[in-house]
Specification:
Blueprint lengths: L5 H16 L3 H4 L1 H16 L4 H21 L4 H6 L2 E3 L4 E3 H4 L15 E3 L9 E3 L4 E3 H11 L4 E3 L18 E3 L1
Parallel strand pairs: 3-7
Antiparallel strand pairs: 1-5, 2-4, 6-7
Keywords: Membrane, Transmembrane, Transmembrane helix
Length: 173
């Protein structure tokens, strides 16, 4: 069996990096990837290297995509590590709801939304200190209530490597 051309390895790396880095690369790049792989496979099949070339493209792409999925560079992780200064170590859910308590919730960053219902409005949340990270804020609320967090983002800024862009903020519902 003949060896695979280094050119095909470089092309596979370039295609795979494009897929994982570009916003919406996972949506836009599969068709060009398939076309390039089929053309390379057909060309190399004439020299009995088609299977090896095809396997190279698939292996390189899978390796790079899996590495990007587990890479510690997600936007949501950076957002959760931001500092947050609370006005008190004890707050009710209603005190954190910007929509119903805007004037008293100015301490809360604009991109964080906490949902208040009649059942949870008076629920007292106890934080360990007033200077915490957003991750600690979310973890504390989730551990003491039924609320769960979700980052809202549009798909246009989403990539496999960096995840969602968090452009619509963090919701606790």
């Amino acid at each position: 069996m003949a060896s695979v051309s280094p050119l095909h390895v470089l092309i596979a790396i370039a295609l795979s990096v494009t897929i994982v880095v570009l916003p919406m690369g996972h949506i836009l790049m599969p068709l060009p990837w398939i076309v390039i792989v089929v053309v390379a496979w057909k060309h190399e099949s004439k020299h009995d290297r088609g299977a090896g070339t095809f396997a190279t493209y698939v292996a390189v792409t899978v390796l790079i995509v899996v590495a990007a999925i587990f890479a510690p560079v997600k936007t949501t992780e950076h957002v959760l590590d931001r500092p947050l200064a609370l006005p008190s170590t004890e707050l009710t859910i209603a005190e954190m709801d910007r929509e119903t308590n805007f004037e008293n919730a100015e301490w809360l960053p604009r991109y964080i939304y906490v949902t208040t219902t009649p059942q949870n409005a008076d629920k007292q949340i106890r934080f360990r200190t007033t200077d915490i990270t957003l991750r600690e804020f979310v973890d504390t609320i989730e551990s003491q209530t039924e609320l769960r967090h979700r980052f809202m983002h549009c798909g246009n800024g989403s990539s496999i490597l960096f995840g969602g862009d968090c452009c619509f903020g963090l919701r606790l519902r």
